[in-house]
Specification:
This protein has 592 residues and is of the alpha/beta class. Helix content is 39%, strand content 14%. Bound molecules: flavin mononucleotide and iron/sulfur cluster (3 copies). The site of one iron/sulfur cluster has 14 residues, from helix 23.
Length: 592
């Protein structure tokens, strides 16, 4: 009996980097070579799909035969002949290459809305999107809904902005709608400047038509004929796929003049950003599109009143807009049934740091941090002790073990002293130094400050200098008070969100890890053994077996000793690279 087969090869940025294209080509080659296609009902559908989150296992490949899906991980072109002959032709799954329990644990606890088709459909094929109910929502909207109907549904759904501030989307659209102007703009913010974040990039790479459809619906609701996607130039694959998708949707009449014969006109331009974090801020983003230097302006007037080229402008994040077609398709109640009372739907997070399963995840609001870190993330790497989780990226704060059972939603994270932000989540273990961590985020925001206002430009520099001296063992007794005072001043006096949130990692680590600051300042000691100036490597002669492993890896030959005799470290030569510590199998090297 002939079978129906589809082969999905992961080709987001991660999948491509791991060799996705070579794997896809090899599948096509094998099918051509052996004439296997004849055994199947339709010719095999071998196609690229977007990221499904677990990039550490790339190249991931799904083989779907008559509706039964098997996923393979770490696939290389050399594995392809075996998968084709044993599984596709022979009907026996190649167990050694297929995903294991931990992949299912990572995947099965997630609830995918925005990412539901990423990893399933070909992002470069508009027909694949249409087959998956794509562009039905805009059709339905233009077929008989008024802009107020659309705004009503979005309001009822409870959708809030996913770009950081969590502002209600329906209300924002209503503000845009109210403005009386023949020219209005809708901008999609795809700048994604937070370090480590790749949520928005994955949506654009994996399902660009979803974003286009969401934007068309938003534009109809507010009465805009012109749209922009502001996307950073360092996302070349996302930009290419977005441009291709825009051309396809124009050809099919989903963009342009008189969309679907409704009389509604809307088109989208792509504007490349140069990768400045501050250009994610609304007024700086607008300045950047206008061809000016990306610097924030004081609000009011708000962009909804006077935005791009002085016209009413609504700015929404990629994930926010990508939720919209699903809300129109499935209804406000469906969306509002997920999440908590005030935070509805799902949220995409980039789960990174010291968890076993790092990657991109989508979870219902209201899930606990513990479920994310332990059930989906698989727990802490090397089974070390959990120390904290930083949510909200450089504008956020860190949460400790006692807070692991709080619900992940805008309110609870805020009450606990952090924020949802755009979705960065960095897990830290006992080997992370919290002072150094605060320093890392502050260095980022200080570098990215546009310099327009003094509290942010000079204040963050001074904060960084204080953190530098603490981590270098030159901390002064009143440094903690100084950090707190200065942080409060910067928050109160900065013009834009960058400066207003930059001190958050400092304040939250000071609150929850005061002892660690004290150890650095008073005892000149880094308890986690991270701050180079405060640690010394020594060899415990009683434990050392003289195996020489440490001496062989030391880049500066600071370690000497005869074979099978205790070794020693010359402190004057040691550059504290940690290589010997990692190489010693006998736990003989002490880091104090
Ligand atoms: C310094 C700074 C950087 C920001 N970066 C982004 C970003 O990369 N993407 C984003 O959507 N919003 C970013 N925001 C928030 C946006 O200014 C804006 O609130 C958001 O795009 C609104 O969309 P939403 O209502 O759909 O969340 C940033 C804000 C600040 C202050
Ligand atoms: S707070 Fe910082 S980033 Fe924002 S306008 Fe002032 S100097 Fe620029
Ligand atoms: S920490 Fe690095 S430089 Fe120092 S002794 Fe060990 S290997 Fe050598
Ligand atoms: S690796 Fe450890 S046990 Fe081996 S010589 Fe070095 S300190 Fe001694």
């Amino acid at each position: 009996m002939k079978k129906r087969i589809s082969i999905n090869v992961c080709m987001g940025t991660g999948g491509m980097a791991a060799g996705g294209k070579e794997v896809l080509d090899r599948f096509a080659e094998e099918f051509n070579k052996e004439g296997i296609s004849a055994k199947f009902q339709d010719s095999p559908y071998i196609h690229k799909v977007g990221c499904r989150g677990f990039c550490a296992r790339d190249v991931l490949v799904d083989i779907v035969i008559d509706g039964n899906k098997t996923t393979y991980e770490h696939v290389t072109p050399d594995h392809v002949p075996q998968i084709v002959s044993e599984h596709i032709v022979g009907g026996v799954v190649v167990a050694a290459l297929s995903v294991k329990e931990d992949y299912h644990a990572f995947k099965d606890k997630q609830v995918k809305v925005v990412l539901s088709d990423c990893g399933e459909l070909d992002p470069e094929d508009i027909d694949a999107y249409i087959k998956s109910a794509g562009y039905q929502s805009i059709k339905r909207v233009l077929d008989g809904m008024t802009p107020d109907d659309v705004i009503g549904i979005i309001k009822d759904s409870g959708l809030r902005g996913r770009g950081g501030a969590g502002f209600p989307t329906g209300l924002k659209w209503e503000y845009g709608r109210r403005e009386k102007s023949p020219v209005k703009y809708l901008i999609c913010n795809a700048d994604e400047g937070d370090p480590g974040a790749f949520m928005d990039r994955s949506v654009v790479e994996g399902n660009p038509h979803l974003l286009i459809e969401g934007m068309a619906i938003g534009a109809y609701a507010i009465g805009a004929e012109h749209g922009y996607v502001y996307i950073r130039a360092e996302y070349p694959l996302a930009v290419d796929r977005l441009r291709l998708a825009l051309n396809q949707s124009r050809e099919r009449g989903y963009l342009g003049k008189n969309i679907l014969n409704s009389g509604f006109n809307f088109d989208i331009k792509v504007k490349l950003g140069a990768g400045a974090f501050v250009c994610g801020e609304e007024t700086a983003l607008i300045a950047s599109i206008e061809g000016k230097r990306g610097m924030p302006k004081a609000k009011p007037p708000f962009p909804a009143q006077k935005g791009l080229f002085g016209k009413p402008t609504i700015i929404n994040n990629v994930e926010t807009l990508a939720n919209v077609p699903y809300i129109i398709r499935n209804g406000a109640e469906w969306f509002a049934s997920m999440g908590t009372e005030k935070s509805k739907g799902t949220k995409v997070f980039a789960l990174t740091g010291k968890v076993k399963n790092t990657g991109l995840i989508e979870v219902p609001m209201g899930i606990t941090l513990r479920e994310i870190i332990y059930d989906i993330g698989g727990g802490i790497e090397k089974d070390k002790k959990f120390k904290a989780v930083q949510t909200g990226g450089p504008s956020g704060g860190c949460l400790t073990e006692d807070l692991l059972d709080i619900s992940v939603d805008y309110e609870s994270l805020g009450q606990a002293g952090s924020i949802m932000g755009s979705g960065g989540m960095v897990v830290l273990d006992e080997d992370n130094c919290m002072v150094n961590m605060a320093r890392y985020f502050l260095e980022f925001t200080q570098n990215e400050s546009c310099g327009k206002c003094t509290p942010c430009r000079v204040g963050t520099k001074r904060l960084l200098e204080i953190l530098d001296r603490i981590t270098e063992g030159r901390g002064k007794t009143n440094d903690m008070e100084l950090l707190e005072d200065l942080s409060r001043d910067i928050i109160a006096a900065s013009l834009c969100g960058l400066g207003q949130t930059a001190p958050n990692p400092v304040l939250s680590t000071l609150k929850r890890f005061r002892g660690e600051y004290e150890a650095h300042i008073v005892e000149k000691r880094c308890p986690a053994g991270v701050c180079k100036a405060l640690i010394t490597y020594t060899i415990n002669a009683d434990k050392c077996t003289g195996c020489t492993a440490c001496a062989r890896v030391c880049p500066v030959t600071a370690i000497t000793g005869e074979k099978k005799k205790p070794h020693r470290i010359d402190q004057a030569l040691c550059v504290k690279c940690n290589s010997c510590f990692e190489a010693c199998k006998f736990n003989s090297i002490k880091k104090i």
